[in-house]
Design a protein that fits this description.
This protein has three domains: 72 residues; 84 residues, DNA polymerase, domain 1 (Orthogonal Bundle); 180 residues, Intergrase catalytic core (hpI Integrase, Chain A, Orthogonal Bundle), CATH 1.10.443.10. 49% of the residues lie in helices and 9% in strands. The protein is built from 15 helices and eight strands. The strands form three sheets. The chain has a three-stranded antiparallel beta sheet, covered by helices on one side. A three-stranded antiparallel beta sheet has the order 4-5-6. β4 and β5 form a beta hairpin. The longest helix is centred in the N-terminal third of the chain and has 20 residues.
Amino acid sequence: MGSLLRQLDRSKNWLARYKGPHGKWLQRSTGTEDKRVAEQILQQYERNSRIAEVEGLVAHKVVANAIEAERLASGRELRFPTLRVFLNEFLKAKTINKKTATIASYRKTVNLFLEHMRAEADKAVNRVRSSDVQAFIQARMDQGAAPATVRQGIVVLRMMFKRAVDEGICAINPVATVEVPEGESSAKLPFTDEDIALILKACPDEEWRTLVFIGYYTGARMSDCLGFKWEDFDLGEAPKVRYQQKKTGKGSKGWVTIAVHPALKKQLLAWHKTSKAPKEGPILPGLTGRPLGGKTGPSTVFVQLLKAAGVDPCYSITGRSKQPRKCFHSFRTTLVSKMQSMEVPQEVRMSIVGHASTDVHKGYSQGEWNSVKSAIEKLPELPS
């Protein structure tokens, strides 16, 4: 049996508390201060929940009740946007606060899901079922998408459909109960010293050489390297760089401050003189502002540079997906592995590359086996 309650510090409207189709207690606003009307809305919520449970989450029954309730209450017809319209409007609304890269990631998920739904994409959003989302997950896995990539896309879809539920245009969130794949993406392999020498030799110009220097000595992601500005660097007597990571930076989070290696300082000063750059602005103006991926993006071009240098990208092939295990991100793994081999404490390594999780950091510590091997070899030899 459901109940009504109010949180007067937030709103005067009554809240309905009732059991959902999966037996979990739910809490939704009735949108009214009138207790009599709120009780009727609570009863409607409970009827919808019973219909969803008894008839196997047949959404059109719930929707029919919602349409009738809206017509009786306001005299207006309740309209439901198509899946395509709803998702695109969601993206448009998110552009107010989200970064361009985040919106691009959301849009990729939306495009993939709309492509999967085909003709259903132009029908009402409330027609989407959990089975549709589960089939989408399977299709992504069959295409060779990494488990972590699939999970990330499902997080985005779950958030989008939660908005639909909150707005009252979906009775249930079809993404809430799906099964997602376990497992992680293949770890990136570190570069050898020989690889680095070949890469530097193959760089088409000093701007690319400078990018390699920055990646090698900071371990920063390519998006951060391309976003570096001259004002981020202090190249004085105690050179350092301070920046906020694009991937994890939000508010006061994601800030990294590290010392600048003498070789990097020398390269930056030489590049500043050669490029005749002003004291402020992007360090790599020819590469900054371009989309990372795509056929001509810096990430793709860097992998092509590896091939030209004679460095094997070490592709990992799953289904139709082919991902390089050696790419620009490998500089991050290289830095962590080298510092580990030099017995730099883990907490120091984590602060340099901006890792908050030790589990994540372990995936970058490719030198772990060498440390284990060295430790085992130090054990005394047993008498024969």
